[in-house]
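G., the chain you wanted modeled:
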Amino acid sequence: MGVREAIIAAGCTRLRPVLLTAVTTILGLMPMVTGIAYNFRKMELSTVSESTQWWSSMASAVIFGLALATVLTLVVVPTLYSLVATAGQAAELGISRLRRAYWAPFYRLTGSKPEEEEPV
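Predicted structure as C-alpha cells:
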C-alpha cells in the first residue's frame, strides 16, 4: 500500500472514534462552562453558584484543548507524516542524481556503462 493510501485508510479508521470522544466530552462540559448546575438539596437548576465560578475556566480550557488536539490528530499529524514520506522520497531521488552526476566523468573517460541501481 502506498503512503497516501495508508494515510487515507488510517484517517477513515480513526475519524469516528476521535470525533465521538471529543464531541461527547465537549458536550458534557458545556453545562460547566455555561454555569448551569443542579442543586440536589433543593432539587432545582441553579445558574449562579460558587462551584460553577470555580470550574468554568477549567472547563473552557479543557474544551479548547480537546478541540485543538482533535484537529492536530485528524489533520496535522497525517499531513506531517505525508510531508516526511515525500521528503524522504525526494532525498533518495536527489542522492541518486548526485551520485550519477559525480560518476558521469568517470564513465565518460573509461567508456564503461554505469551499473543500474535497483529500485527501492
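Residues 3-107 form one domain.

Shout if anything looks off.
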